[in-house]
Structure prediction request, 424 residues.
Amino acid sequence: MSVWKISGGRALHGEIKIQGSKNAVLPIMSAAIIKGCETELLNCPQLSDVEAAMEILKHLGCTAEREGDTVYIDSRGMNRTDIPHDLMREMRSSVIFLGAILARANEAELSYPGGCELGVRPIDLHLEALRCFGAEISEQGGNLFCRGRSLRGARVNLSFPSVGATENAMLAACGAAGETVITNAAREPEIIDLQAYLRKLGVSIWGAGTPTITISGFVLRDRVGHRVMTDRIVAATALCCAASAGGRITLRDVVPAYFETVTAALEQMGCRIDRKSHSVTLEADGRLHAPRPIATRPYPGFPTDAQPLLMAAALKAEGTTAFTENIFESRYRHAVELNRLGADISVVGRVAVVTGVKALVGAPVKATDLRGGAALITAALGARGTTTVYDIGHVIRGYEAFEKMLNDLGADVHYEDERLAPVG
Prediction:
């Protein structure tokens, strides 16, 4: 059990560099196996999800090593096509290996993935996309068995612009003969970053960032170097923390357009935002008012991952805000915990109504998922007294040295991982 202790009431000040993107690096690590080659990934965050992906690569017979923020992958020795349950359960994103293994070996065996419990998140879209290439998929005892002896290019029309299904289709298409066209594709910046890596690998691919992606042909390169994009959700988290606690912070090496919906909402709340080409500065004086209704949508709409964070920042804002969650059905589990701090949140179905309160008071709370845990820390920064967040390891899945980043800005955050505590 991990424990976060936050002494609130300290305004945040300073300048920080945002880590590499978790949601971008994981599919890129999967893509490193579609052909045997060496990959050097720069700006790779040190996260438990990344470590889990490295263990999967090693199980498959690849070499995966870290040196600082650089991860080296050599997939030439890949000799397995299965991923056991104990590795799959570590993260939801492990399903992205399905399309990559199928592209490389024309067969794959894995169990259903783990990750945060955010309600029903079927992988039906992933499987439907892979079947378009001629893959045969069956389920036995909770395991998926995929066979595709001669994958062929296809027209893949996604019924919903799922990020994971789009990525799996992109990876599988790299092992298919002929042209593939993916329509109603996800448009997230992480999709663009995956395309950039695949192009360096030798894939003829274009259209990422639009609803239509085309893959046609592959000229393998033996060695690839790629710098992972900055994490836009971590950037949004830092800004929401400053809005909650008050103060003035600057984020460096970011692309402001990638989280514009979040900065726009923070401006509505009364924060002052200064955007440059590769930096963002937020200033908040603690006097906030409720933003207009927030509804999560696929990119370029408001990101579901940022919904708990903005909610935490809005707890003391004057007025009332309605949040509508359109992506996951159980993404308000953090609301009960935020109410323990004195927040006023009522939830009915997919709608959460937040009425601003004058003050929050520290209390023991429990992190129920990655972004929900980060939201509790965000709220605690603006609360009186000390908040203890009990966590089974959710937050470190997506945030590298989160406590250091906040303490560098003047916060008082202490993190303990009891699994690493000495015995006796």
Q: What stands out?
A: Residues 114-121, 420-424 have pLDDT under 50 and may be disordered. The chain has 13 helices and 24 strands. Residues 232-245 form the longest helix (14 residues). The domain at 2-19+230-420 is CATH 3.65.10.10 (UDP-n-acetylglucosamine1-carboxyvinyl-transferase; Chain).
